[in-house]
Amino acid sequence: MENQTEKARVRFWHRYRGLPSSVFALSLVSFLNDTSSDIIYPLLPAFLFLSLGATPFAIGLIEGFSESVASILKLFSGYLSDRFGRRKLPVFFGYSLAAVMRPLLAFVTTWTQVLVVRMTDRIGKGIRGAPRDALLAADVSPEERGLAFGFNRAADHLGAVVGPVIAFLLLTFLAADPSNPTMREYQQVFLYASIPVALGLFVIVFFVHDHPGPNPIEDADSIRFSLDEFDGNFKRYLLIVSLFTLSNSTDAFLLLRAESVGINPALLPLLWMVLHFSKVFSSLIGGDLSDRLGRKAMILSGAAIYAIVYAAFA
Question: I need a surface site. Which of 33, 162, 221, 240 has the fewest CB within 10 A?
Fold first, then answer.
């Protein structure tokens, strides 16, 4: 029994080692970007609430509006990357927006300015998301797509583990009182967040290779911004995802709740780290299992676990 378990473990890691280098390059970019983002994100609700005097409504508005803009833009960016046959350029531009906007949080003085910065950052996410996923899908066979996307999401979440650790260390060393950071001390931490995502741009330029979509001249007119050509199963999936997203609470409220019950602001990044540490392993295992057991079973089990956890918070 022990020998069979060891063989299964070896096969599991061997499948990931067989992924193409382009998948590893895009996953490294995701890791660096999320490291950057999650230096900021665990501290942002407390910064808004304690330093800028933002209400919970304002915090929800910032996150809800920013993520909505990103989701809508994914539709257009995916369509345009198909129409013009280029993936790498929108991916680079999307990450560039993040690299430019995040250090600006070091200079904001009102929550409305945070809204503008955060929204523009998320615009970059909306622009790069679909073309990046198209690059990933083009690099592997259909039988390995779950593996490739699982690895990419795991790298994404690993960045969300490393980022909070960096935020905790920076706040510990930069703040005179880490349990009660000043506005300027928060902003000093935010300033460092642009470094990892800037490194990600270097990886895109030198290690990510474009996979042109349909010929932009001959086939452009055949690509229409319409759902008519998709089957009913895909349309039902979109409806379910839309309902889930509409009812889903932003994680910023979880961080705000943790701060309100007396958790030291300097420890909030570590709580965020624990959350994403679990996501690293679930992404690796879930991606592998989705190739074997099917996508539907994994989506349903993930949604069920999500619902149970949020019910426990009620």
Answer: 221
Q: At what angle do helices 268-293 and 295-313 cross, to 10 degrees?
A: 150
- The answer to the question of residue 219 being in a domain is no
Question: Is pLDDT at 181 greater than 60 in this prediction?
Answer: yes
Given the structure tokens 């909030």, which residue do they identify?
A: 268
- Phi-psi bin for 262: left (phi > 0), alpha (psi -120 to 50), beta? left
* Number of domains making up the chain: 1
pTM score above 0.90: no
In the three-class reduction of DSSP (H, G, I as helix; E, B as strand; rest coil), residue 155 is classed as helix
Convert 126-137 to b/e letters by CB count within 10 Å (16 or more is b): bbbbbbbbbbbe
CATH number, domain with residue 194 = 1.20.1250.20
How far from each other are the two terminal CA atoms of the chain, in whole angstroms?
A: 41
Cβ(150)–Cβ(286) below 8 Å: yes
Q: Is residue 5 part of a domain?
A: no
Helices of type H across the chain: 2-17, 21-40, 44-46, 56-84, 88-101, 111-139, 145-174, 183-192, 194-207, 232-247, 251-260, 268-293, 295-313
Amino acid (1-letter code) at residue 144: E
Give domain status of residue 309, yes or no.
Answer: yes
**Domain, as residue range, for 84:** 19-211+230-313
Q: Which of 74, 48, 67 is nearest to 59 (CA)?
A: 48
Reported as a single tens digit per residue, the pLDDT across 278-299 is: 777 777 777 777 777 777 777 7
Cα separations (Å) of 58 from 75, 95, 197, 283, 310? Answer: 27, 26, 27, 32, 22
State how far the Cα of 134 lies from the Cα of 152, in Å rounded to an integer.
13
Q: Helix crossing, 194-207 with 21-40: angle to 10°?
A: 170
pLDDT value, residue 302: 76
